[in-house]
Amino acid sequence: MGAHEASKVIHALYNDDEILMDAVKKVKGEHHHIEEIFCPFPVHGLDKAMGLAPTRLAITAFMYGITGLSVAIWLTWYTMIHDWPQDIGGKPNFSWATNMPAFVPIMFELTVFFAAHLMVITFYMRSKIWPFKEAENPDPRTTDDHFLMEIPVHGNEEELKTLLAATGAVEINVVDKH
Amino acid sequence: MYQFSGRLKTLAIAFMVLGALGVALGFYNAPKTLEDAKEIMANQAAHGAHGNDHGETKHVEETHTEKKEDAHAEENHSAENSHSEVIVEEVQADSHIEDESHSEEIKEVLEVEKVHVATLDTHDSDNAHGASHDDAHAEHVFHQLQNRPWAALYVALLFFLGVTLLVLAFYAIQRVAQAGWSIVLFRVMEAITANLLPVSLILLAVLVASLLHMNHLFSWMTPGTFTPGHENYDPIVDGKSGWINAPWWMIRSIIYLVIWNAYRWFIRRNSIKEDTAENISTYKKNYNVSVIFLFLFMITESMAVWDWIMGLDPHWFSTLFGWYVLATFLVSAVTTITFVTIYLRSKGYLPKVNDSHIHDLAKFMFGFSVFWTYLWFAQFMLIWYADIPEETTYYAMRFNEYKGLFLGMVVMNFVFPILLLINSDFKSIPWFVVMGGIVILAGHYVDVFVMIMPATVGAQWAIGIPEIGAILFFLGLLIWTTFSAFAKADPVAKGNPFLGESEHFHYYNIEHRGEDADAHH
């Protein structure tokens, strides 16, 4: 029961995603908080089992798409109609609306471009990852064939160890988190 | 086993009888003689809705469309251009003297089409055949009025044939892809394809009737089209006579229908055999035959669409037309599968179908709606951009006479499904999917309508008793064939090796209503 007890965590390692899923449900069923799970690949349904709120990334993607569409409309209007009217193929210029079919591919592409790129950037920011960042991964085996569940310890180390052992963990370590 | 319920049977029969009555009434009301047609035209003029002014524009436009292409083929370009300018002025000058409103309309046509040479020809021919003009116009409208019940039947017929055929193709894709999710829907898809044989036979009858000149659906069947020197001689169509000629056209039509029906007959029989098969060989055989069918289908579908739809406008062509129509029928087919599935599930006959299956079907409805829009727009944009007269006539006709339907269907087939089905949660709510599906089906019927009507009835279109009658008839037929076929086999394709995967199918992102939320597989 030292002063650094608050930063103590348990790392439980699993070697199968199905066993992990059952373990997560059991741990949540006992009302323990799961801080983080590290997986070598996405495990469908894990977020729900952990009790994480649904992602809002899709909503941002929609808004980014609308932004891209607006930028495309402005861009085609400004460059092709307003600033320097372009006459291509004898189409009526000085009017964005009557030239609209020619701009649909641009509108489509910029919608996709904005939605995709900004969504990825948002994902990076929300996940707090960026180029050249040191890996936070506590155990390199989670990039290969192991799954790691991290649970903070609040004076219940032995209880947690027993519980995790019963869920089929292949290894249980208590570590000090820095 | 499913029992085709008495109520549904009654509904199907009622649809067929009512529909047949509507179709018959359409034929009965069609003008029998030129005099009848003139009377109808006089009535239209009096009512003003499809009034005289409007009718006049149509006529100018149609005439010049035909003339223009002749001119285009025969004359050389520089000659056309040099005197077209002069003629435009002449047309406008003359019109001013004659009739103010008339000139407005001609100018409108010019703006829409920018086919100056064409107007010149119209103008010339109007002068030359001044007296016969009215009669020629009356006869043209007479043929269009006579075509209307045929065209109404033809639109609904092709729509339901296309839907049934694409259900078959979608099913073949499931087999070839060895898809796991859809096995519990196999018997639903097979049941819908039972409609293929009756609609094929009706189509054959209509095609034969066209060849026997019982209707004027296909302008290239007009006697004299291929005879140089004849008044109906059409050099452009004659140039395509290696493909567009009655015997070869009919033989091709029969070949397509035989291939499709043969696969349907084989795969249905062998799919039922799978249920009791002792080894995997039946399944493998079905796989192989489906591969061959899909290969043949992709070729025959495109060609059938050229022959049966694009052939209505024999001057016009679009290289992605086959794909475009494929997309129309594909999204309608998936919607039909969804409807039948939701109905049978609600009656408890498909206990293995869960929310994820509905979700997947709705995803296909959504995805193929976007795919359809992509092709619709790709075809339009290239023609709009290039602005070549023989291509733009197709859209000029649709923008002039069918604007509401033509643009309305884009809202129905694109905007509506996008807004309704983009949300993942909505895709597994049956009533929501049904609501989106009804709009999709109506929108794609309109799509087929706008493909066929301009070339067959021109400005004389309406959505009335003949059109609705034809839809009801084929809808009744589809219900009858589908549910009686579904009653004839085990509702679950229990011999399929992927059945377990399909039963346990759970899209991770949704929860199945009425099921233990903790259940995962």
Automatic annotation (TrEMBL), chain A:
InterPro entries: ActD. PANTHER family: LIPOPROTEIN-RELATED, QUINOL:CYTOCHROME C OXIDOREDUCTASE MEMBRANE PROTEIN. Keywords: Membrane, Transmembrane, Transmembrane helix. The lineage of its organism: Bacteria, Pseudomonadati, Bacteroidota, Flavobacteriia, Flavobacteriales. Pfam families: ActD. It comes from Tenacibaculum todarodis. It comes from the Bacteria. This is Quinol:cytochrome C oxidoreductase. The chain crosses the membrane at residues 57-80, 100-124.
